[in-house]
Amino acid sequence: MKARLIATGQRDARVEGPLDFDTVGPLLAAGEALLRRPGALRIDLGGVSAANSAGLALLLEWMDIARSRRITLSYLHLPESLRRIAAFSNLEALLPVEEVR
C-alpha cells in the first residue's frame, strides 16, 4: 500500500498509510517540500495504518530538516507502535509529540 503526506492547511499536514521501508523514501521528499515553508508545521499521524523502525527514522529525519531550517515541527496522534519503538530505543523524549485532548 502507498503512503501519502497531505497538506491539510498552511501549517498542517497528515500522513495516511503505512510507514515502512517501502514508503519512507517518497514521504521524506514530500516532507522536505513542506518544510520549506517558514514558521511551524504540525504533522498528524492519525492516518498511519502500520509503522516500523523506518517510520521512526523518517520522523527523526524530518525533525533534523526542520531544525536545520529553524522550523518548529510537532507530531499529533503518534501511533502506539512508533511510541513503543521510540521508547525501546530511548528516543521517545526527542520526538516533539503534541498531545491532543
TrEMBL record:
It holds the Pfam family STAS_2. It comes from Candidatus Thiodictyon syntrophicum. This is Sulfate transporter. Residues 14-101 form the STAS domain. InterPro entries: MlaB-like_STAS, STAS_dom, STAS_dom_sf.
